[in-house]
């Protein structure tokens, strides 16, 4: 988000007067904002008009408390800044709020234009820093797993084959040395592919360039890059474009679709058929990639999105492709899942929220 984009702010408070105060202050603030209002924790959980940048959450809600729902809402919107509001200042509540994921805490009696501007600026900076630290921690854990587990085997194979080739050459067994040399090349290739997959998984950490991306161009680029794989598999790939543009990072969205189509090509049936569609749905913008392959067992439908998880060892791959897809979908405020039955193919669905710019300037939802 650039500095001139309006903030999407969700106010969760059952007090009409308090919401009106926050709305007036936000209207006068330094940063333009679109204000969305709900009265209860249930309404906050059901809210899906946009992905909020900031959530102003009242501590006392009908039948619930802001503290009790804070952790769940934080998991739903991990990049959002959460500011807990109370009628009176309370250090114990403030401590609990921070422990459960709140970025800032404020007593309503202390709210004025200066205080709210400062709160928003600090909360968003802290939320972004926390997100990046968590993402780096996850990436470090993945990298350590690669070093400990996945790089060991190909490195060991390269070392063993190199020793064998040297021994064959010493003994004058040129034919054996040539065969060993070929195997050495294969092992090095697998090692390089694994490193490339890892690089793709972490390469977009600093990419914050968001814009309107032409969907037809996006899919054309995916098919162009994958044309050797499509030709080799003899696959029939059909594309259905139901929307003109999608808001997000072009390189990341292309990587997401490329990984899904490549996965479908690898796991397709004898006569590979892949269907790709991008269209509007009730929940937002939906991308689907379907194949006619072996399908995914029910117990693996969630696990396949974890790093290094694979449905079968018969198909080559690093096990990072779908993990990268999930990472990109979540970075766009969306989600990804798989629908499948064994032997009946699989459909991967990605839902991205509608661009916040399509929302009304002020949206109020009461429940």
Automatic annotation (TrEMBL):
User: What is an example of a Pfam family matching this protein?
Assistant: HATPase_c
The residue ranges of the Histidine kinase domain are 146-356
Which superkingdom is the protein from? Bacteria
Q: Where does the Response regulatory domain start and stop, copy by copy?
A: 8-123
Q: Name one GO molecular function term.
A: ATP binding
Which Gene3D superfamilies does this UniProt record tie to the protein?
3.40.50.2300, Histidine kinase-like ATPase, C-terminal domain
Q: Is Amino-acid biosynthesis among the key words of this record?
A: no
What is the designated name of this protein?
histidine kinase
Q: Sorted alphabetically, which InterPro entries does this protein's record hold? A: BphY/WalK/GraS-like (IPR050351), CheY-like_superfamily (IPR011006), HATPase_C_sf (IPR036890), HATPase_dom (IPR003594), His_kinase_dom (IPR005467), Sig_transdc_His_kin-like_C (IPR004358), Sig_transdc_resp-reg_receiver (IPR001789)
Entry keywords, A to Z: ATP-binding, Kinase, Nucleotide-binding, Phosphoprotein, Transferase, Two-component regulatory system
Coiled-coil residues: none
Reactions catalysed: ATP + protein L-histidine = ADP + protein N-phospho-L-histidine
The broad enzyme category this protein falls into is transferase
Entry's CDD domains?
HATPase, REC
Could you tell me the Gene Ontology terms of the biological process aspect for this record? osmosensory signaling via phosphorelay pathway
- EC number of the protein: 2.7.13.3
Q: Which residues carry this modification: 4-aspartylphosphate?
A: 58
């Amino acid at each position: 988000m650039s500095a001139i984009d309006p903030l999407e702010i969700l106010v969760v408070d059952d007090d009409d007067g308090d919401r009106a105060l926050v709305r007036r202050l936000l209207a006068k603030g330094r940063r333009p904002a679109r204000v969305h209002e709900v009265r209860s924790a249930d309404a906050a959980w059901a809210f899906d008009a946009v992905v909020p940048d900031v959530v102003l959450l009242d501590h006392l809600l009908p039948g619930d408390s802001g503290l009790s729902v804070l952790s769940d809402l934080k998991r739903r919107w991990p990049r959002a800044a959460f500011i807990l509001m109370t009628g009176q200042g309370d250090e114990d509540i403030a401590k609990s709020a921070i422990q459960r994921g709140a970025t800032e805490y404020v007593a309503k009696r202390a709210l004025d234009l200066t205080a709210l501007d400062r709160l928003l600026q600090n909360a968003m900076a802290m939320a972004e820093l926390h997100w990046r630290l968590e993402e780096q921690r996850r990436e470090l854990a993945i990298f350590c797993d690669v070093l400990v587990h996945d790089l060991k085997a190909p490195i060991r194979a390269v070392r063993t084959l190199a020793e064998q080739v040297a021994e064959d050459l010493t003994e004058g067994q040129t034919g054996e040395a040539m065969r060993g040399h070929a195997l050495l090349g294969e092992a090095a290739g697998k090692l390089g592919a694994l490193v490339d997959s890892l690089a793709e998984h972490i390469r977009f950490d600093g990419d914050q360039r968001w814009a309107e991306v032409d969907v037809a161009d996006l899919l054309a680029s995916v098919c162009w890059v994958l044309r050797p794989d499509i030709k080799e598999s003899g696959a029939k790939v059909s594309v259905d474009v139901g929307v003109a543009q999608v808001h997000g990072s072009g390189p990341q969205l292309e990587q997401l679709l490329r990984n899904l189509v490549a996965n479908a090509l690898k796991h397709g049936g004898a006569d590979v058929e892949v269907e790709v569609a991008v269209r509007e749905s009730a929940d937002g913008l939906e991308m689907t990639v379907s194949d006619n392959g072996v399908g995914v067992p029910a117990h693996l439908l969630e696990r396949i999105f974890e790093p290094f998880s694979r449905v079968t060892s018969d198909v080559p791959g690093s096990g990072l492709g779908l993990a990268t897809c999930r990472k990109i979908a979540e970075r766009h405020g969306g989600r990804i899942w798989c629908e499948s039955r064994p032997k009946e193919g699989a459909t991967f669905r990605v839902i991205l929220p509608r661009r916040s710019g399509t929302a009304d300037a002020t949206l109020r939802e009461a429940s």
